[in-house]
Design a protein that fits this description.
- Helices cover 79% and strands 0% of the residues.
- The chain is mostly helical.
- The radius of gyration is 10 Å and the shape is rod-shaped.
- The protein starts with a helix and ends with a helix.
Length: 24
């Protein structure tokens, strides 16, 4: 399940990046 948490962490970072900066 560690990989799942890692993927979720990556997705959260990407989502947060899209919130802070305009993502395409």
């Amino acid at each position: 399940m560690v990989s799942l948490l890692f993927v979720f962490a990556m997705w959260s970072t990407i989502a947060l990046d899209c919130v802070l900066y305009p993502c395409t």
